[in-house]
What does this fold into?
Amino acid sequence: MLNSGLTELSAALALRKISSRELTQGFIERVVRLNGALNAFITVDEEGALAAARRADERLARGEGGPLTGIPLAYKDIYCTKGLRTTCGSRMLENFVSPYDAHVVERLNAEGAVLLGKCNMDQFAMGSSSESSYFGPVRNPWDTKRVPGGSSGGSAAAVAARMVPAATGTDTGGSTRQPAAFSGVCGLRPTYGLVSRYGLIAFASSLDQAGPMARSAADLAVLLSAMVGFDPRDSTSLDRPRQDYSQKLDVELKGLRIGLPREYFAEGIEPGVRKAVDAAVAWFAARGALCTGLELPLTRLAVPVYYVIAPAEASSNLARFDGVRYGHRAKEYSDLVDMYCRTRAEGFGDEVKRRILVGTYVLSHGYYDAYYLQAQKVRRLIARELSAAFQRCDLIIGPTAPTTAFPIGAKAEDPVQMYLGDIFTIPAPLAGLPALSIPCGFDERGLPVGLQMMGAHFSEGLLLGAAHRFQQATDWHTRVPTETPL
Amino acid sequence: MGRYDTLTTLRQITQNFRGARSEGNVSLVHDQVRRLARLARIAIRSDETEIVLERLNRVLGLVDEIRRVDTAGIEPMAHPLDAVQRLRADEVTQDDQRELYQSVAPAIDGGLYLVPKVIE
Amino acid sequence: MRWEIVVGIETHAQLLTRSKIFSGAPTSFGAAPNSQASDVDIALPGTLPVVNRAAVEHAVRFGLAVNGAIKRRSVFARKNYFYPDLPKGYQISQYELPIVQGGQLRIESKAIRITRAHLEEDAGKSLHDVFRGMSGIDLNRAGTPLLEIVSEPDLRGAQEAVAYARALHRLVVWIGICDGNMQEGSFRCDANVSVRRPGEKLGTRCELKNLNSFRFMEHAIDYEARRQIELLESGRRIEQETRLYDPERDETRSMRSKEEAHDYRYFPDPDLLPLVVDEKTIEDIRRTLPELPDAKLVRYVQKGVPAHAAERLVVSRDIAEFFERAVAAGASYEGVANLVVGELAGLVNAAETTFGQCSVAPEDVGMLQRRVADGTISSKTAKELLGKLFELRQQGSVDALIERLGLRQISDAGAIEKLVDEVLARNEKQVADYRAGKDKAFNSLVGQVMKATQGKANPAQVNELLRAKLAKPPS
It folds into this structure.
């Protein structure tokens, strides 16, 4: 059961072949067994999970419930969960118990999903390795000396190690897709506005999106269908009819126009990554997809633009953590300003502080036009370039990241080298586009490689369908990590 | 290095950028870091300043790339979607939850949040 | 050489809404601390703002009332600074693109230009020294909708500044967007004051805060102008700064002299989208906008109301509406105006009430005036009756009351003539005096006729008859 997909599990639950309680118990046991090695969870809510499982079983017994009723799920610890600690991977919120549920949590609770626990992550979702957590680094189930990617690294590792069938993540610059790629699972970033941000602790508001992480595209579809939907509490939430993404997974590949940006296949990409991605592209071509080369010269500017806009918004979003109403407050201080300064110095990790300082700088008097405003203009140029590309193709395919998972500590000294790893995942959020990452092979070290597919706005159905077709013919996504055998 | 090798290009740019105040590149100095830290209300110990400065300068070296782009006539993009603000009906929808909200507060008394004396 | 005092006023008018500008928490004043601070207002992690429609409509209403441009697209920005009463660490406020641009407000014969009016949220309150060495933070006010209205530096001196502030106050209350309660902070003004020699460019200005009454505003500006003039005349310079008015000592003093330079790092709030106001909304609001005081004033004067009385009728919308309902009951503008700004205003003031809550129905005032006009009662009786109606709190009973109290005026010529004859017969001396050229004697005779009728005789008729009789030689 631990290795089954969501569809199989919900069928088994509906047919009463297994109870949610048994299923939940089974996953909890695996979490308890593996978490010491992986550090994928910050909080495990055994009691709450079993209570939710009991309620789900009652619902199932009445013949009610949907595809997620009774399914154990984990949340990235950036989702506010009522009555349960929500840390955002930070000392600042080490003991913060949210008084309310995020919109996504409300939705999934209403579906009868079982909240198993909260996953580890880069502090305030800032990072690409899940090393910056106050609760210690997450380890990659394929090689525990390596990072699982980030910032949703705990969710990715938990799904990969079969500690939970699926999890939620968030994606600001690639935080669902890159850890999915590094950990050998699937991760989706929806079109901006599709999933409510209410109750997600904000990093960069114009970029943040919640997304599902699971072991197959079909499972992503199940979870995404439950996560989307209009929320009047989020001004950026889109009011459009909800869609069941599981219904149309059998998309036609013949004639599908696939764009291959030359910049995504150039020097600097590891050969193992290149090989696996090329093979995946060849598979699509063999099914009748029309592959065309593209040029996206502004790709070069995506990372610099992102590292202006995201820190700028973050510097303001994180100003509320001042030790007054919740969260950490320094024990010793001389006056009010000192209380603020010490509270924030103690509560935030180095990467968070660095981004706050960068963001403060690019918004400050005399630099705003040169950095922030200029970044917003270049952001529009990048969005236009992508929009033009989607006139010529239906999907853009390439590697999710230029490398596979790197060793823990390898990029700790140089933040910029870490940032550059986001080069392929950043364009989609800048333009508000949906994108996903699925496993497409392994490099020579046996580390998973991720294939990224990017689509036009609201093309989630197409992305999931194309990924699903690929997964029907391949087994990369079914491989169990070597260090966490079943 | 080919024209599509953006990653290599960026790596070289940032590796060459060592915080030197050269050719119009911006680079922060100690005073500025202290001022920024003060604005952002983040205490920085004096023994940290050097490394903070060095790493900030690397980041600024990276983002400096955008300054060279011609963006004349381009409307800034504040938001990924071309949507407009939705308006809420003027209704009271939230009741008093002070007790719950203040259960996570560091210091309260008589329903007030307590802070070190505010000087005006 | 004389100095010119230049003033610009920034006003924060609290908008009359049920809920806050970005959350569904109530806005009522005086609740227990933090009992009206919702998750959004206390900036819980993950919470987001959504704009209140009523606040936007109020801003549009104001823009139309001052003939400003309603911007079809405006943008909410974040003003970033740390302060314990500012829970998010930034204030959401319109910055580069405000909802109202331009406009003007008339004071007497001068038009004061309005630069802009924009929507923003209020901060909470810091209560100092409630606990030893600590301040207490109450966030009930955080997120209350404000319209910040900025005037051009068109005002010359404290009196004009106060006239502007009063006119603005009357307007925002008139159009129903603000309750105007200055004690509760619903209408707060800051003044930018500078001085210059006439014709020179603007001098360095100081911003005065804590002007929470019109009287304080006048005193503060006067004091500040004197201070600046003294500095300049002694060869010193003015520092641009924010100064607090201290009403106890009647002076202004520098707020935070060593304060670090502000850098608010404004940028468009990414949690909010551009605010777009469509034509239909604007037209709907325009249609429901009440007739404004200036327009009413002109109309009243055209209808025969003396200018000084008309001014008093448009002091508030309550009075004007009361007046118009009274007129609508079939009475003349001028006659009703006299009753309203005279007798009734006195009664309302003495009772410390308002025209909106006045115990006399405006229709009854109109009826009283009709009864004066048709000669049923004298205007003196009308005033007395008004007092009676005010006291009795009886409405719709003017005619009944006239009858019951027997106040109907005697206009029957025969009856009056009889009385006049009796009075003349009894007062030979006065008659003789009058005929000898002593005019005073005439008044005494009129008085006696009136007294004999308990004041009910039509005074005009009495006058006329008396004069006619006295003009004839004694029979």
Summary: The mean pLDDT of chain A is 97.
